[in-house]
Amino acid sequence: MGAVGAEELMKMEKMQAPSAREEKILVLVRLRPLSEKEITADEATDWECINDTTILYRNTLREGSTFPSAYTFDRVFWGDCSTTQVYEDGAKEIALSVVSGINSSIFAYGQTSSGKTYTMTGITECTVADIFDYIHRHEERAFVLKFSAMEIYNEAIRDLLSTDNTPLRLLDDPEKGVVVEKVTEEILKDWNHLKELLSICEAQRRIGETLLNEKSSRSHQIIRLMIESSAREFLGKENSTTLSASVNFVDLAGSERASQALSTGARLKEGCHINRSLLTLSTVIRKLSKGRNGHINYRDSKLTRMLQPCLGGNARTAIICTLSPARSHVEQTRNTLLFACCAKEVTTKAQVNVVMSDKALVKHLQKELARLESELRSPAPASSTCDYVALLRKKDLQIQKMEREIRELTKQRDLAQSRVEDLLRMVGCDQDSRQETGRNHNSHKQVSDIWEDEYSESEASGVADLHRMKNGVKKSNTTRFYDTESENNSEYLYHPENNEDPTLSDCTSSPLPIGKKVVRSYSGKSLEENAGATTEDSDEYCREVQCIEMEGSSRFKNFESHALSNGENEGTLALTYEDGDVTGQEMISTPVNGDREERRIQNGFTYGALEQRLNNVQKTIESLVSPYPDAGESSLRSLAEDMSSSRSLSLARSRSCRAKLMAGSSSPSLEKGEQIESTPPNGFEKNFPGRPEGFQKKLFSYGTNTSSLSRNDSLSSLESASIKTSADEDITSIQTFVAGLNKMAKNQDYKLITLKRM
Ligand SMILES: Nc1ncnc2c1ncn2[C@@H]1O[C@H](COP(=O)(O)OP(=O)(O)OP(=O)(O)O)[C@@H](O)[C@H]1O
């Protein structure tokens, strides 16, 4: 180590101080050979060191397998291995850190008679010998070695270099940490002096005879060697600095079992103190091994308090765990190994300790003072004050702006809240009104059902949500409806038992939904031609619905289809029922929105609910077709070219037509032909000559989408048609008409219309 002057000191401060060396405690294990006593007692040994780092317990069968059998440490020494080797291969590097200004500590830990004193005596001598050697080789530095020795006996600190038995006090020094008050410090002169001091310590230390050890140490011994070094060339000068560090040689008293040591009286009391302080040490080590979180109970014993810097503090530390190989001590050996396992996880943070001379320190402090004074004298530039004012003003403006925003948002929130309340009130009124309507206009309920079918699935979705909010949702035995027009597809619940759509508003006052319709194919004994498409506005509103065909017997069957369409060119939906029983569900949809309809039917309706609704619709239609007496029940026949036992029905309605129907429900004085008048498609005259006047009206009102035909002058939008008549004389004309339609369809590369007999 060379001279450390001011420049070098700064360099060291920069390099060493910030990078305080963090490292784990070095853990060495020394397994002594069986003692003569143990050999005499025919003790067996179950421990074996299989290499330089691993010790193995071979008798796991005997002891059970709850403990590990192999333990690995930084280094393991066994058998005849000398203390010098333990020092050279293990403790030396750490012990000699002291000459570089780094605190270091070497501990010996283990059960009684395991060889702690034997080991530490050798380690101390080796270290001091090496220190002397180092000093001799570094004459450029002036070294001062201060030797002190203490013991902790029954929780009292004694000075081993003094004959005074007065316990020493531990003090907390703000700079040095924990110090032992008034402890004797001998300036170590030479090797002989060391030997002399060590002899005094040995003589002073409390040693007692136990069954396990004739010279059992009854106290923890701490030999401390403080080394201060300064560069000779700077000695006495202003800028001289000193490296100061100490090395501790700690020979702990051995843990012992009273039952094994057979100690009584004073020995027993000593043993209790020893075990208690060792327990504290173990606890501190265990806590440190898990990190530095939480309280570490250094103050629970004099030992841990004195050694606090060595345990996870500013020091490099090595612990030599000494073991007895005897089988009778296996439990204590295991405890020692577990302690060692914890200790190797503890991290210390050592750094070079530099002490400045008083003069150097004064000079340094003067410089620092001058710097601070000059800072105070020169006031801050005016511009910076302005900056602060501007900054404050800017912040004030920001705060004002945010307050305005808060007020605005609060206003909006209140408004929205009152809107919600209004809507909830409205829904409540609608419910009441609707119930009233149900009571007063029972005869019109069937028409309302039609309206419900449509309204509930379209425009009512918003109300539905409010209604749900208000009335809650019953999930059992309910049917779900989805608002197909709403992007988020909100749903509400329908209760089929009540035959009541909870979303329904007053049907008489609600606007007609645009682009919605219910289409239903119907056939039965008393089915008459009915309904119609008006020409007025039909181009805009009329939707075409594909008919439902059902293969079946020649006899008439109840057949219902329910179709829903949603907007121009959207898909259609149909369900078939046979003989009143549900036989299946069939859906026909156009490619445009077929998937959406499919989702609706799959997720929404249940057969029961739909059947109920269809029945209502059916009743309504029956009530509407009743004004046509000429549609006799026995005369419904449809002519087909190639089929003899099936039927085909379709019904297309425009919005205006439905409006009439709705209006008609409250004023059922429909005159024959009023709703079924329509304009024949172009080409009809050509392909359908000689038609009877009445047939033409009935035909188009019931079976075809006349508006699309007339608008497009083609059959592109006609996918199917059904034709019904109550007059035998119309049969020929119908056949001709169908042939004409198919001819037109064929010419336009469109699919042929299939007509089936019913
Ligand atoms: N590695 C070793 N090789 C040979 N003999 C040893 C070794 N270690 C210890 N001994 C012997 O074992 C006996 C007990 O050793 P020592 O007194 O050092 O144990 P201890 O752990 O300090 O016991 P205590 O805690 O009771 O003071 C001594 O006679 C010592 O010479």
TrEMBL record:
Pfam families given in the database record: Kinesin
Family the UniProt entry places it in: Belongs to the TRAFAC class myosin-kinesin ATPase superfamily. Kinesin family. KIN-7 subfamily.
Protein name as annotated: Kinesin-like protein
Binding site for ATP: G110, Q111, T112, S113, S114, G115, K116, T117
Keyword match Coiled coil: yes
GO molecular-function terms, A-Z: ATP binding; microtubule binding; microtubule motor activity
One record GO biological process: microtubule-based movement
PROSITE patterns: KINESIN_MOTOR_1 (PS00411), KINESIN_MOTOR_2 (PS50067)
SMART domains to which the protein is assigned, alphabetical: KISc
Lineage: Eukaryota, Viridiplantae, Streptophyta, Embryophyta, Tracheophyta
Domain Kinesin motor: 24-346
Polar residues compositional bias, start-end: 479-491, 501-510
Keywords: ATP-binding, Coiled coil, Microtubule, Motor protein, Nucleotide-binding
Region (Disordered): 479-510, 626-645, 662-690
Coiled-coil portions: 355-426
Naturally occurring in which organism (per UniProt): Citrus sinensis
Cellular component terms (Gene Ontology): microtubule
